[in-house]
Amino acid sequence: MRARTTTTYDRSATTTIPILELWGNLVVPLQGEIRDSQMDELRDRLLARLRDRGARGLVIDASGVWLLDSHLCSMVGRIARAARLMGAETLLCGLGPDVVTTLLDMGIELEGIRTALGLEEALEQLGVHAESPDEEDDVWDELLDGRDDEDEGEGERDARDA
């Protein structure tokens, strides 16, 4: 009888970190446990994308990361500085207390790299402004109010013409 073997598959070893394009900016969402090889590969793809697309800004969203080791902290700082050298304003957002403490303890300098609490704030700092549902309703209300005024004016003319 053959012994049954179990094969484990480490998805993080082969997962590519996405680079999203939003309104002329690049967004890199960091999620879960990130390997050094993933960050090295990200750096190469990201710098090539910045060169090819000429993005105005780069947001590195670390809200999905609960731990950054020394190499990852260093890589985030290097990627941010390299992007800035290529003309992209760089923002780092979503930093949790543990990640901030690690960055400080390691003496990683993020000079010239702005930070934001979350992705929405980071995009706003880059000039991308999302409309809230309330603002959208206000626009519709204004349009409909304008139509009501026009309709009333036509009704008055119709009454005079009769």
From TrEMBL:
Biased composition (Acidic residues): 133-155
One Pfam family here: STAS
Spans through the membrane: none
Highest rank taxon of the organism: Bacteria
PROSITE patterns: STAS (PS50801)
Chain ranges of the STAS domain: 15-126
Annotated stretches, region: Disordered: 128-162
Record-linked InterPro entries: Bact_StressResp_Reg (IPR051932), STAS_dom (IPR002645), STAS_dom_sf (IPR036513)
UniProt name for this protein: RsbS, negative regulator of sigma-B
